[in-house]
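dumping this here before i forget
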Amino acid sequence: MNIDSGESSSPFHQGEIDVQRRVGVAERMNDRGRGLIRTKMPDQHREFFSGLEYIFVGSSDQTGWPNPSVLFGSRGFVSSPDPQRLRIASLPHSFDLLSANLSVGASLGVLGIDLTNRRRNRINGTVVAIDESGFELAVVQSFGNCPQYIHTRNVRPTKNRTPDCIGPFKVETFELLDEDTRQFVGRASTFFVASCALNKDGTSFECDVSHRGGKSGFIDVADNQITVPDFAGNSFFNTLGNFSLNPKAGLIFVDFVTGDILSLLGTIELLWDDQSIGAFKGAQRAWRLQVFHGRKVQAAASRLIGELVEYSPKVLSTGTWQRSERST
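structure:
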């Protein structure tokens, strides 16, 4: 968002507008976006963020490779000193690419999500301060998201389950998906995706991080590619709009049983008219990630352990991929 759109009053950048035009919603979304996307946080959102124990962050390096991260803390580790600032009292581990991307002036996308009640709110902001315990953002855009496709989970209290209790993290890096990793992705019903696009001056990348959900099996895995259906949503097209300008993505998957985190980086192909999409109930289009790098970190998300309580009602009307011989 917030990249030169050719229409200074629009809250959307040119990539988002192009996708909105392609699907016939641009005029409606221009009016709707002006009303829903704010330059400061309403009190309701400020209170929501202050009650979280985890938060997802999207960042980018200088060449436009996006990275999704998850940060943890006790309730109150995220705070809002005033409606135009967000403070996060947590820093990334050294294995997290956010540690290299975090600098004053950097653009970050922030997703606050409560998996116990399906609420979520988002901000896009600029880092204005970093210290030994965390960092602070100036809010550029603040907006809410509906609970579509978010599953309710019984995320347990964090007492006695802090990462410090489990010893050093075991980090595995790879370039090719092995069978275990394919199964990890193939059975997932939730993941988070980071994307970015150049700002209007062409000097830096502005970032976003979004949630994706479906039935277990809604992601197709074949060789070193994964294909994700795109369901009807708020029609902002933040992710697809970024992809249209900068076809790169970072994905993060959480194993809610073990707390393991899987991160994947790769290039994106937008699938508008692929015949295989028609066989997937509920999908309007799709996108495909060609993986070139991955990282698995053991128990890095131990604070997100929690069994699935209920599928999102919206997901019940969608399907799973009809597996072909190429799918493994």
